[in-house]
Write a structure and sequence with these properties.
Elements: E1 3-7, H1 12-22, E2 26-31, E3 46-48, H2 51-62, H3 71-89, E4 95-98, H4 104-113, E5 116-120, H5 126-139, H6 144-147, H7 152-164, E6 167-170, H8 173-181, E7 189-191, E8 212-217, H9 226-236, E9 241-246, H10 254-258, E10 265-268, H11 274-283, E11 286-289, H12 299-305, E12 310-313, E13 328-331, H13 336-348, H14 360-373
Parallel strand pairs: 1-2, 1-4, 2-3, 4-5, 5-6, 6-7, 8-9, 8-11, 9-10, 11-12, 12-13
Helix pairs in contact: 1-14, 2-3, 3-4, 4-7, 9-13
Length: 374
Protein backbone atom coordinates (compact mmCIF):
# COMPACT_ATOMS: atom_id res chain seq x y z
CA UNK A 1 0.00 0.00 0.00
CA UNK A 2 1.22 3.50 -0.85
CA UNK A 3 0.00 6.74 0.73
CA UNK A 4 0.98 10.00 -0.98
CA UNK A 5 0.80 13.39 0.72
CA UNK A 6 0.77 16.94 -0.60
CA UNK A 7 1.23 20.16 1.39
CA UNK A 8 2.70 23.55 0.57
CA UNK A 9 4.38 23.84 3.99
CA UNK A 10 6.08 21.12 6.08
CA UNK A 11 3.32 21.01 8.69
CA UNK A 12 2.15 17.93 10.62
CA UNK A 13 1.83 16.07 7.32
CA UNK A 14 5.58 16.15 6.74
CA UNK A 15 6.20 14.53 10.11
CA UNK A 16 3.70 11.79 9.23
CA UNK A 17 5.27 11.38 5.78
CA UNK A 18 8.70 10.81 7.32
CA UNK A 19 7.35 7.98 9.45
CA UNK A 20 5.40 6.48 6.54
CA UNK A 21 8.61 6.50 4.50
CA UNK A 22 10.42 4.64 7.27
CA UNK A 23 7.58 2.10 7.27
CA UNK A 24 7.78 1.71 3.48
CA UNK A 25 4.23 3.08 3.07
CA UNK A 26 4.93 6.50 1.49
CA UNK A 27 4.12 6.86 -2.20
CA UNK A 28 5.38 10.42 -2.66
CA UNK A 29 5.51 13.66 -0.72
CA UNK A 30 4.62 16.74 -2.80
CA UNK A 31 6.00 19.90 -1.23
CA UNK A 32 5.76 23.62 -1.84
CA UNK A 33 9.06 24.03 0.02
CA UNK A 34 12.46 23.49 -1.62
CA UNK A 35 14.16 20.24 -0.72
CA UNK A 36 16.88 21.92 1.34
CA UNK A 37 14.19 23.29 3.68
CA UNK A 38 12.87 19.81 4.48
CA UNK A 39 14.89 18.26 7.35
CA UNK A 40 15.79 14.57 7.47
CA UNK A 41 14.56 14.00 3.93
CA UNK A 42 17.24 11.53 2.85
CA UNK A 43 15.73 8.53 1.11
CA UNK A 44 12.23 9.99 0.97
CA UNK A 45 10.38 10.10 -2.38
CA UNK A 46 9.91 13.87 -2.50
CA UNK A 47 8.80 16.12 -5.35
CA UNK A 48 9.02 19.88 -4.86
CA UNK A 49 7.60 22.96 -6.56
CA UNK A 50 8.63 25.99 -4.52
CA UNK A 51 8.41 28.89 -6.99
CA UNK A 52 5.31 30.58 -5.59
CA UNK A 53 6.09 29.72 -1.97
CA UNK A 54 9.52 31.30 -2.30
CA UNK A 55 8.00 34.49 -3.72
CA UNK A 56 5.36 34.71 -0.98
CA UNK A 57 7.78 34.26 1.90
CA UNK A 58 10.39 36.45 0.25
CA UNK A 59 7.92 39.34 -0.05
CA UNK A 60 6.87 38.94 3.56
CA UNK A 61 10.41 38.79 4.83
CA UNK A 62 12.14 41.50 2.83
CA UNK A 63 9.45 44.11 2.11
CA UNK A 64 8.34 46.57 4.81
CA UNK A 65 4.75 45.98 6.00
CA UNK A 66 3.36 48.96 4.11
CA UNK A 67 4.77 47.67 0.81
CA UNK A 68 3.62 44.05 1.09
CA UNK A 69 0.67 42.76 -0.96
CA UNK A 70 -2.34 41.52 0.97
CA UNK A 71 -1.20 38.26 2.67
CA UNK A 72 -4.47 36.43 2.07
CA UNK A 73 -4.26 37.17 -1.64
CA UNK A 74 -0.66 35.92 -1.69
CA UNK A 75 -1.52 32.66 0.10
CA UNK A 76 -4.48 31.97 -2.18
CA UNK A 77 -2.25 32.56 -5.22
CA UNK A 78 0.39 30.26 -3.72
CA UNK A 79 -2.05 27.44 -2.90
CA UNK A 80 -3.83 27.46 -6.25
CA UNK A 81 -0.55 27.29 -8.16
CA UNK A 82 0.69 24.46 -5.96
CA UNK A 83 -2.57 22.55 -6.43
CA UNK A 84 -2.30 22.80 -10.22
CA UNK A 85 1.30 21.55 -10.12
CA UNK A 86 0.44 18.55 -7.92
CA UNK A 87 -2.40 17.71 -10.30
CA UNK A 88 0.13 17.56 -13.15
CA UNK A 89 2.81 15.72 -11.15
CA UNK A 90 0.57 13.25 -9.34
CA UNK A 91 1.67 9.62 -9.70
CA UNK A 92 -0.29 6.48 -8.99
CA UNK A 93 -0.79 5.48 -5.34
CA UNK A 94 -3.54 4.04 -3.18
CA UNK A 95 -4.31 7.35 -1.43
CA UNK A 96 -3.46 11.03 -1.77
CA UNK A 97 -3.79 13.32 1.26
CA UNK A 98 -4.12 17.04 0.59
CA UNK A 99 -5.20 20.08 2.59
CA UNK A 100 -8.26 22.32 2.13
CA UNK A 101 -7.75 25.22 -0.24
CA UNK A 102 -5.01 23.46 -2.24
CA UNK A 103 -6.44 20.22 -3.58
CA UNK A 104 -9.26 20.69 -6.12
CA UNK A 105 -7.14 19.97 -9.20
CA UNK A 106 -5.14 17.36 -7.25
CA UNK A 107 -8.32 15.43 -6.42
CA UNK A 108 -9.69 15.74 -9.96
CA UNK A 109 -6.51 14.16 -11.31
CA UNK A 110 -6.57 11.52 -8.56
CA UNK A 111 -10.06 10.49 -9.70
CA UNK A 112 -8.72 10.04 -13.23
CA UNK A 113 -5.90 7.82 -11.92
CA UNK A 114 -8.09 5.81 -9.57
CA UNK A 115 -6.35 7.16 -6.45
CA UNK A 116 -8.53 7.49 -3.33
CA UNK A 117 -8.67 11.06 -2.03
CA UNK A 118 -8.34 12.17 1.60
CA UNK A 119 -9.02 15.77 2.63
CA UNK A 120 -6.66 16.28 5.55
CA UNK A 121 -7.93 19.04 7.84
CA UNK A 122 -5.24 20.91 9.77
CA UNK A 123 -7.96 23.09 11.33
CA UNK A 124 -11.70 23.19 11.80
CA UNK A 125 -13.91 23.52 8.70
CA UNK A 126 -13.94 27.15 7.60
CA UNK A 127 -17.71 27.49 7.96
CA UNK A 128 -17.43 26.43 11.60
CA UNK A 129 -14.56 28.85 12.17
CA UNK A 130 -16.65 31.72 10.82
CA UNK A 131 -19.72 30.71 12.84
CA UNK A 132 -17.80 30.51 16.10
CA UNK A 133 -15.56 33.54 15.67
CA UNK A 134 -17.96 36.07 14.12
CA UNK A 135 -19.39 37.17 17.53
CA UNK A 136 -15.87 37.56 18.91
CA UNK A 137 -14.79 39.85 16.07
CA UNK A 138 -18.00 41.82 16.50
CA UNK A 139 -17.22 42.21 20.22
CA UNK A 140 -14.01 44.13 19.44
CA UNK A 141 -15.62 46.17 16.67
CA UNK A 142 -14.23 44.22 13.71
CA UNK A 143 -15.97 42.64 10.74
CA UNK A 144 -14.89 39.06 10.24
CA UNK A 145 -14.95 39.43 6.45
CA UNK A 146 -12.23 42.07 6.80
CA UNK A 147 -10.01 39.67 8.76
CA UNK A 148 -10.17 36.71 6.37
CA UNK A 149 -10.78 36.00 2.67
CA UNK A 150 -13.68 33.62 3.14
CA UNK A 151 -16.19 34.87 0.58
CA UNK A 152 -18.75 33.02 -1.55
CA UNK A 153 -16.10 31.99 -4.08
CA UNK A 154 -13.94 30.50 -1.33
CA UNK A 155 -16.86 28.52 0.10
CA UNK A 156 -17.76 27.25 -3.36
CA UNK A 157 -14.21 26.02 -3.77
CA UNK A 158 -14.42 24.29 -0.37
CA UNK A 159 -17.66 22.60 -1.43
CA UNK A 160 -16.00 21.35 -4.60
CA UNK A 161 -13.12 19.85 -2.60
CA UNK A 162 -15.54 18.15 -0.19
CA UNK A 163 -17.41 16.64 -3.12
CA UNK A 164 -14.15 15.19 -4.49
CA UNK A 165 -12.99 13.74 -1.15
CA UNK A 166 -13.48 10.03 -0.55
CA UNK A 167 -12.40 10.40 3.07
CA UNK A 168 -11.63 13.12 5.59
CA UNK A 169 -8.78 13.00 8.11
CA UNK A 170 -8.91 15.10 11.29
CA UNK A 171 -6.78 15.20 14.42
CA UNK A 172 -9.52 15.05 17.04
CA UNK A 173 -13.08 14.32 18.06
CA UNK A 174 -13.75 18.06 17.78
CA UNK A 175 -12.89 18.03 14.07
CA UNK A 176 -14.93 14.86 13.56
CA UNK A 177 -18.02 16.39 15.19
CA UNK A 178 -17.73 19.56 13.10
CA UNK A 179 -17.57 17.54 9.89
CA UNK A 180 -20.47 15.32 10.95
CA UNK A 181 -22.55 18.44 11.61
CA UNK A 182 -21.85 19.50 8.02
CA UNK A 183 -23.22 16.19 6.74
CA UNK A 184 -20.05 14.12 6.27
CA UNK A 185 -20.77 10.45 7.02
CA UNK A 186 -18.97 9.35 10.22
CA UNK A 187 -17.53 6.25 8.54
CA UNK A 188 -15.69 8.54 6.09
CA UNK A 189 -13.94 10.49 8.88
CA UNK A 190 -10.59 9.27 10.24
CA UNK A 191 -9.12 10.59 13.49
CA UNK A 192 -5.32 10.74 13.53
CA UNK A 193 -3.95 12.85 16.45
CA UNK A 194 -0.80 14.97 16.29
CA UNK A 195 2.45 14.27 18.12
CA UNK A 196 5.80 16.03 18.63
CA UNK A 197 9.47 15.77 17.67
CA UNK A 198 11.25 14.07 20.61
CA UNK A 199 14.61 15.51 19.54
CA UNK A 200 13.29 18.97 20.43
CA UNK A 201 10.40 18.38 22.83
CA UNK A 202 11.60 16.29 25.74
CA UNK A 203 11.74 16.73 29.53
CA UNK A 204 15.40 17.72 29.75
CA UNK A 205 17.13 18.22 33.13
CA UNK A 206 14.83 18.30 36.15
CA UNK A 207 14.22 21.85 37.35
CA UNK A 208 11.59 23.63 39.37
CA UNK A 209 10.03 26.91 38.19
CA UNK A 210 10.81 29.93 40.34
CA UNK A 211 7.26 31.01 41.16
CA UNK A 212 4.08 30.20 39.22
CA UNK A 213 4.78 30.74 35.52
CA UNK A 214 1.91 30.35 33.03
CA UNK A 215 2.90 29.63 29.42
CA UNK A 216 0.68 30.84 26.55
CA UNK A 217 1.99 29.52 23.20
CA UNK A 218 0.70 30.67 19.83
CA UNK A 219 -0.51 33.85 18.22
CA UNK A 220 -1.99 36.26 20.74
CA UNK A 221 -5.38 36.79 19.16
CA UNK A 222 -9.10 36.26 19.54
CA UNK A 223 -9.22 32.60 18.51
CA UNK A 224 -6.78 31.49 21.20
CA UNK A 225 -8.99 32.88 23.99
CA UNK A 226 -6.68 35.70 25.05
CA UNK A 227 -9.59 37.60 26.61
CA UNK A 228 -10.52 34.61 28.79
CA UNK A 229 -6.97 34.36 30.12
CA UNK A 230 -6.77 38.09 30.84
CA UNK A 231 -10.08 37.99 32.72
CA UNK A 232 -8.91 35.00 34.80
CA UNK A 233 -5.68 36.81 35.67
CA UNK A 234 -7.60 39.92 36.72
CA UNK A 235 -9.86 37.83 38.95
CA UNK A 236 -6.84 36.15 40.56
CA UNK A 237 -5.38 39.32 42.08
CA UNK A 238 -2.02 37.52 42.28
CA UNK A 239 1.06 39.70 41.97
CA UNK A 240 3.31 36.63 42.24
CA UNK A 241 1.96 35.02 39.05
CA UNK A 242 3.32 35.74 35.58
CA UNK A 243 2.40 34.82 32.01
CA UNK A 244 4.88 34.33 29.19
CA UNK A 245 3.39 34.76 25.70
CA UNK A 246 5.26 33.03 22.86
CA UNK A 247 3.82 34.19 19.54
CA UNK A 248 3.05 37.28 17.53
CA UNK A 249 0.57 39.74 19.01
CA UNK A 250 -2.17 40.25 16.42
CA UNK A 251 -3.80 43.67 16.00
CA UNK A 252 -7.18 42.13 16.83
CA UNK A 253 -6.00 41.46 20.42
CA UNK A 254 -4.68 44.93 21.18
CA UNK A 255 -8.00 46.22 22.52
CA UNK A 256 -8.19 43.43 25.11
CA UNK A 257 -4.54 43.83 26.06
CA UNK A 258 -4.93 47.59 26.46
CA UNK A 259 -7.85 47.03 28.84
CA UNK A 260 -5.99 44.60 31.08
CA UNK A 261 -5.58 45.81 34.67
CA UNK A 262 -4.75 42.58 36.47
CA UNK A 263 -1.83 42.14 38.85
CA UNK A 264 -0.02 39.16 37.25
CA UNK A 265 2.84 40.28 35.02
CA UNK A 266 2.60 39.77 31.24
CA UNK A 267 5.80 39.00 29.31
CA UNK A 268 5.74 39.03 25.49
CA UNK A 269 8.51 37.16 23.66
CA UNK A 270 7.11 37.20 20.11
CA UNK A 271 7.55 34.29 17.74
CA UNK A 272 10.39 31.99 18.79
CA UNK A 273 12.08 28.86 17.45
CA UNK A 274 10.80 25.43 18.40
CA UNK A 275 13.87 24.85 20.56
CA UNK A 276 13.27 28.10 22.44
CA UNK A 277 9.62 27.10 22.91
CA UNK A 278 10.67 23.71 24.29
CA UNK A 279 12.93 25.47 26.79
CA UNK A 280 9.99 27.63 27.86
CA UNK A 281 7.85 24.54 28.36
CA UNK A 282 10.53 22.93 30.50
CA UNK A 283 10.71 26.03 32.70
CA UNK A 284 6.98 26.69 33.05
CA UNK A 285 4.42 25.68 35.65
CA UNK A 286 1.41 25.10 33.39
CA UNK A 287 0.31 25.79 29.80
CA UNK A 288 -2.89 27.82 29.47
CA UNK A 289 -4.59 27.89 26.06
CA UNK A 290 -8.31 28.73 26.50
CA UNK A 291 -9.09 28.44 22.78
CA UNK A 292 -12.46 29.47 21.38
CA UNK A 293 -11.91 27.34 18.27
CA UNK A 294 -9.07 25.01 17.38
CA UNK A 295 -9.11 21.72 15.53
CA UNK A 296 -6.00 20.59 17.41
CA UNK A 297 -3.21 22.57 19.09
CA UNK A 298 0.13 21.03 18.19
CA UNK A 299 1.67 22.82 21.17
CA UNK A 300 -0.22 20.54 23.57
CA UNK A 301 1.61 17.27 22.72
CA UNK A 302 4.80 19.33 22.45
CA UNK A 303 4.32 20.67 25.99
CA UNK A 304 3.31 17.27 27.36
CA UNK A 305 6.51 15.77 25.93
CA UNK A 306 8.43 18.43 27.87
CA UNK A 307 6.64 17.53 31.11
CA UNK A 308 4.34 20.57 31.21
CA UNK A 309 0.66 20.04 32.18
CA UNK A 310 -1.86 21.74 29.87
CA UNK A 311 -5.12 23.59 30.44
CA UNK A 312 -7.35 24.02 27.39
CA UNK A 313 -11.02 24.06 26.44
CA UNK A 314 -13.60 21.63 25.11
CA UNK A 315 -13.35 23.43 21.74
CA UNK A 316 -9.70 22.53 21.29
CA UNK A 317 -9.23 19.11 19.71
CA UNK A 318 -6.12 18.55 21.85
CA UNK A 319 -8.54 17.96 24.74
CA UNK A 320 -8.56 14.34 23.58
CA UNK A 321 -5.06 13.97 25.08
CA UNK A 322 -5.96 15.48 28.46
CA UNK A 323 -6.80 13.51 31.62
CA UNK A 324 -8.12 15.81 34.33
CA UNK A 325 -5.54 16.59 37.02
CA UNK A 326 -3.20 13.93 35.65
CA UNK A 327 -1.70 15.83 32.73
CA UNK A 328 -3.94 18.89 32.51
CA UNK A 329 -7.48 20.23 32.61
CA UNK A 330 -10.31 20.89 30.15
CA UNK A 331 -12.62 23.83 30.79
CA UNK A 332 -15.58 25.42 28.98
CA UNK A 333 -14.63 28.07 26.42
CA UNK A 334 -15.00 31.70 27.55
CA UNK A 335 -15.20 30.63 31.23
CA UNK A 336 -12.63 32.78 33.05
CA UNK A 337 -13.72 31.55 36.49
CA UNK A 338 -13.23 27.91 35.47
CA UNK A 339 -9.79 28.77 34.11
CA UNK A 340 -8.85 30.53 37.34
CA UNK A 341 -10.00 27.54 39.39
CA UNK A 342 -7.75 25.24 37.36
CA UNK A 343 -4.79 27.61 37.55
CA UNK A 344 -5.14 27.65 41.33
CA UNK A 345 -5.33 23.85 41.40
CA UNK A 346 -2.10 23.48 39.43
CA UNK A 347 -0.38 26.03 41.65
CA UNK A 348 -1.34 23.97 44.70
CA UNK A 349 -0.45 20.69 43.01
CA UNK A 350 2.71 21.24 40.95
CA UNK A 351 3.78 18.21 38.96
CA UNK A 352 5.68 17.25 35.85
CA UNK A 353 4.09 15.07 33.21
CA UNK A 354 5.80 11.91 31.96
CA UNK A 355 4.48 11.33 28.43
CA UNK A 356 5.80 10.69 24.93
CA UNK A 357 3.67 11.59 21.94
CA UNK A 358 5.69 10.33 18.96
CA UNK A 359 4.88 10.69 15.26
CA UNK A 360 5.25 6.96 14.64
CA UNK A 361 1.92 6.36 16.42
CA UNK A 362 -0.16 8.65 14.14
CA UNK A 363 1.59 7.21 11.07
CA UNK A 364 0.78 3.66 12.13
CA UNK A 365 -2.82 4.62 12.83
CA UNK A 366 -3.13 6.28 9.43
CA UNK A 367 -1.69 3.19 7.72
CA UNK A 368 -4.13 0.94 9.57
CA UNK A 369 -7.15 3.09 8.68
CA UNK A 370 -6.01 3.17 5.06
CA UNK A 371 -5.68 -0.60 4.86
CA UNK A 372 -9.11 -1.03 6.40
CA UNK A 373 -10.55 1.35 3.80
CA UNK A 374 -8.92 -0.62 0.97
Amino acid sequence: MKISISATNPCHLYAVARELAAMGELGAYYSGYPLWKLPHSDGMPIKTHSFRTTIVYGLQRFLPPWARPDPWTLYLWQDKGFDRWVGRALAEADFIHAMPGQCRRTFERARELGVATVLNHASSPIREWVRIMEPEYRRVGLKIEEACPYNDAYFQGADDEYALADYHCVASSVGRDYLAALGVAPERIWIVPYAADPEIFHPGPERQPNGFHIIFPGQVGLRKGTRTLLDALTLSGREDWSVDFYGAVLPEAKQDLAGYNGKPRLNFHGAVSQRALAEAFRGGSVLALPSLEEGFSLVVPQALNCGLPCITTERNGAKDLIRRHENGSVIPARDAEALLEELRWWERNPLRVNEKHLWREPAERLARLSKEAL
